[in-house]
Amino acid sequence: MLYFDDIRPGEAMRSPTYLIDQGEMVEFARRWDPMSIHVDPDAADAIGGVTASGTYILAVKSRLLHELPETFAIFGSAGYDEVRFHEPVRAGDAVHVVMELLEVRASRSKPDRGVVKLRISLVNQNDVTVMSHLDTLIVRRR
Predict the structure, then answer these.
(1) Which of 14, 24, 122, 142 has its CA 20 to 30 A from that of 8?
(2) CATH 3.40.50.880 holds for 4-140
């Protein structure tokens, strides 16, 4: 468990790899984001085939965060900024998370916690970043 006091800006962590499954990806889209480019191969043909929905990509990223070697002692997230989908994700892609620790700031009003800023990237098998965002966490102090 990583506490605020353990976090060093400049360090990074990498998750294990997750293989994007066609059935899971399409079923998720059918339920939560049924745009034709996410569920219909004929409609998606013009863009090179069915692509994963952004919501699915964020769900995969969230799952992979729980696979990191260490987790944070968090109170919660203060929010995401600069969410970007850089490249399409497709069935058969093998993705992993890279989490870079950017900044730490002790809370002035609550001495039991601090604020941690991170860059979270989802990277495919070709070492291409397919999604990224900044995250601000509220993390417990020791």
Answers:
(1) 122
(2) no
